[in-house]
Write a structure and sequence with these properties.
Largest sheet of chain A: 9 strands, antiparallel
Number of helices of chain B: 7
Number of strands of chain B: 0
Structural class of chain B: mainly alpha
Helix content of chain B: over 70%
Radius of gyration of chain B: 23 Å
Distance between the termini of chain B: 81 Å
Oligomer: heterodimer
Shape of chain A: flat
Helix content of chain A: 40-55%
Strand content of chain B: under 5%
Strand order of the largest sheet of chain A: 1-2-3-4-9-8-5-7-6
Shape of chain B: elongated
Distance between the termini of chain A: 58 Å
Strand content of chain A: 15-25%
């Protein structure tokens, strides 16, 4: 649908603008209770401004796309004519082609930046308002690259660059949580590899503990052996064998305290950790307990907190539902792992 | 060096590492057992405080008070950690004490004033925490015993184990009462 709208507008079609005046219907789900009133008071008044913003950024994107297309066509013709000259050797031709591709990439990035800016505007405006309904949460759309904070957990893969977005900090059922999406890339010469793309969550944990326990994905006997040898922290920890055979097949557990590892990873906690894989549709989850905090990494999880398409009229009800549903996914981690249950001296 | 000598040396090396592994696993069991004893000591230290708080409210429950006290003293007695029979008896007493304390806590629920006492609430929380630590220590001990059994029950581990004086150790099993089916009609 979005690609058809894009083509229609690109070739001169009219931008259809419609103010979203719909009411929010709570339905039976508890997560929406009380939101209808909040929506009427805080979100609906934003409808006119929101749609104006969308049209403004869409017009900006279309202008830039058309300019880029014209420039590329003209430069393409000139480059083709130049390349066909007899005195131009193969090296120069290759340079012309690379230059043309580079120019194309720059121009489309410039055009695409308008969409990115629109998304950031929606996130910092509309999404931030919705978070106020959910509790005392701080929402930072561009994230806050604080990798040093996560390094002590020793499960963050080695990387040369990182990009973060959608940082959410706050408390749910008295459990402090910090959610962030991140992309980690490792560059080695010309070779570039994404080592992590997904979500991380940091929780305060309800039990007191002193040591470090790491739950890593099981990658087979040989993979586990080399992974353990190459990581200096894992080398200093002992392997912990647990009773759940399915859990043992999925994960490898390392700790500097065998008793504490079992104190944290009770049989029911292991069950709940396995359930999380389904919740986040993640192919891989790793966990680390350190200094009274639990750190979870979900690799390959779906992208959360993304606004709807710029090519369609803004649907505030739909945007709000998305944010509430996705935040409840994060709350479900607390519920599933029962992090709010207090035990202890 | 002739091939037969090399094979002999390799064979002796394998036997030595096998023997060393048996000893290492036995030591792991002893380490795990001492971990349990640390937590049992913590529990022993908590029990008198709980009984003192509860006595003010549970005036007619002398029988359970004396049973808990008796078991607490028995668990605190020393034993030979390398003797499987003494270890089995020690762990059985500990399991029995857990079960008796469970009964005691259930009876305490019948005394609303005791239930709402802040001192009792705090003591119960501490006690639950120690029981969670005992459960974790028990799982570690059982894992260590399982690992030891695997190596000394398979040839030539059984011969090497006998030579090293390493004996099979008992698992720390749940108390029999906990395994028995619960009759809900008793409580309704």
């Amino acid at each position: 649908m979005s690609s058809l709208s894009f083509i229609r507008i690109l070739v001169g079609g009219r931008i259809i603008s419609k103010i979203d005046d719909a009411k929010f219907v709570e339905g039976d789900e508890a997560k929406y209770f009380g939101f209808a009133k909040f929506y009427d008071e805080r979100i609906r008044p934003m409808a006119i401004e929101a749609e104006k913003t969308r049209v403004e950024y869409l017009r900006r994107f279309m202008f830039r796309s058309r300019v880029s297309a014209v420039v590329l066509i003209l430069v393409g013709i000139a480059a083709f004519k130049l390349g066909s000259q007899a005195f131009i050797g193969p090296d120069a031709t290759e340079l012309i082609i690379k230059g043309y591709i580079g120019l194309g990439a720059m121009l489309f990035s410039w055009a695409g930046f308008a969409i990115f800016s629109y998304h950031q505007k929606v996130k910092s405006g509309l999404f931030s308002e919705v978070f106020k309904f959910l509790g005392e949460f701080d929402y930072v759309p561009e994230g806050r690259d604080e990798m040093e904070r996560y390094k002590k957990f020793c499960i963050v893969p080695g990387h040369t660059s990182s990009k973060t977005e959608d940082l959410v900090c706050g408390k749910y059922k008295d459990v402090s949580l910090r959610f962030e999406e991140m992309d980690l890339v490792r560059k080695s010469g010309k070779h570039r590899k994404t080592v992590f793309k997904g979500a991380v969550i940091l929780f305060s944990f309800n039990k007191k503990f002193n040591g470090q326990t790491i739950v890593k994905r099981d990658i087979g006997k040989i993979g586990n052996f080399f992974s353990g040898k190459s990581n200096s922290t894992l080398r200093s920890l002992e392997r912990v064998s647990l009773e759940d055979p399915e859990f043992e097949e999925m994960f490898e557990v390392y700790s500097n305290d065998q008793v504490e590892a079992r104190y944290l990873l009770t049989t029911s906690f292991m069950e709940r950790l396995k359930k999380l894989l389904e919740f986040f549709q993640s192919k891989k989850i790793e966990a680390s307990f350190c200094e009274n905090e639990l750190f979870l990494m979900f690799n390959g999880s779906s992208d959360l907190f993304e606004p709807g398409s710029i090519f369609k009229e803004i649907n505030l009800v739909s945007e709000c539902r998305t944010v509430i549903e996705q935040m409840n996914l994060i709350f479900d981690v607390v519920n599933v792992l029962k992090l709010d249950q207090k035990t202890g001296l | 060096m002739s091939l037969s000598v090399i094979i002999l040396i390799a064979g002796l090396a394998v036997l030595y590492f096998w023997y060393a592994t048996i000893v290492a696993r036995r030591n792991k069991v002893l380490e795990a057992l001492s971990g349990i004893d640390v937590q049992l000591k913590n529990r022993s230290d908590l029990i008198p405080n709980i009984l003192t708080i509860a006595k003010k409210f549970m005036e007619h429950e002398d029988k359970i008070f004396s049973e808990v006290s008796r078991l607490r003293e028995s668990v605190s007695n020393g034993y030979d950690a390398k003797n499987p029979e003494e270890v089995k008896k020690h762990l059985a007493l500990s399991a029995e004490l857990s079960q008796k304390m469970g009964t005691f806590m259930a009876r305490a629920e019948n005394y609303p004033e005791l239930k709402s006492s802040q001192n009792m609430l705090h003591a119960q929380q501490s006690y639950n925490e120690v029981e969670a630590q005992i459960a974790a220590s028990r799982r570690f001990y059982n894992a260590a015993v399982g690992s030891l059994r695997n190596i000394i029950q398979i040839f030539p581990g059984n011969i090497l184990g006998a030579l090293a004086g390493v004996k099979d150790m008992p698992f720390y099993e749940a108390e029999e009462a906990a395994k028995a089916p619960v009759d809900a009609s008793k409580y309704l």
